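Subject: sequence -> structure tokens, single chain

Hey, anyone have a minute? Need the predicted structure for the following. Not urgent.
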Amino acid sequence: MNLLIYTANFAPLRGGIETFVASLAGGLSSPATSVKVVTRTPDSDNSDEGRTYEVIRNPSVVRFARAIGWADIVQISGPALLPMIICCVMQKQFVVEHHGFQTVCPNGQLMDNRTQSPCPGYFMTAQHRQCLRCNASAGRIHSLKLWSLTFLRRFGCGFATANITPTYWLSDIIGLNRTFTIHHGLEQPLPASRRVENASSPNLVFLGRLVCTKGVSVLLRALDLLRNETNRPVHVNIIGDGPERARLEQQCRLLKLTDSVKFWGELEQGKLDQLLGEASAVVMPSLAGEVFGLVAAECMLHGLVVIASDIGALREVVGETGILFKTGDSKDLARCLKQIANHPESTRELGRQAKQRATKLFDYLSMVNRHLAIYRKCVGDATEDWRQHGYE
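Reply:
Had a minute. Here:
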């Protein structure tokens, strides 16, 4: 079988989608399945060397069409219009893997930009004036364009042989036909590192891009509230970079939290492993935009408790092994942080349970095989593994 995977963003860029596509392509590549990846991302550091599949970067439309013609089936990461149009014209079967909300929200984040809070679902409830107002800060024409493209993307996904989501929650949100849920798989356990079991104060970690949807501002406000409520200081390592970093560092200074909060920026894997190994828990105060929470799953495999906002995707990933708080509520988050500070033993037990959950639910081979079962079914190679993986 010839499989073509299209993704706008790919290595050497770093992020959840890039990591997922590289992991899936590597797992699917075999003597029985030839894989090619098409991307708009240029290669700046020879990152394609040693891959078991071909990567086609910045192809012309003609070369892109030829690659689609070569494929038995095409997987599209996100509802990208051009590959969907080419597949329809060439009568090629395609699968859309959803990594965002582009078919139900014009800004793709399911977030109300005016209030910086989760969107209640304006587009799907036909409150289109609210959608246009939500993105109007970038200009009326731009807002109208985003709104129009949402209709087109949703229409295009109706022609997909299958739509794949990483959580059941997202499947319910997008409401498309022929939808299958496959949790992301973790390719290998994170390296073991020394855990500081008797630390004098809790060490927390935030790991992700510093953008408004990640809710780091909520975390800083929670730390400010917590300061006078516990006799054990709480230290936070903020790992990652992004356009919000300068504003967040300023907020940290204004709240006088510089002694307890450190911004690390992007880190090499060795230093990242060290900080995770010394952490008591990881905090994910996301306001919107989460469809799975790869960081949560990876940290759970590391034996860390995840303190997360109660967004549906994060709730599904962490289950009962995590600590949830009301989205955007810094006071409720402060309560959770206080729990971590005052009950270290129960925190460690939750971490052990989190590792067990991640090992069971986010199995890498299961993810690869379930994708393969869908592809085979789509191209008419209906094998017994279709039923083995719970498909009807």
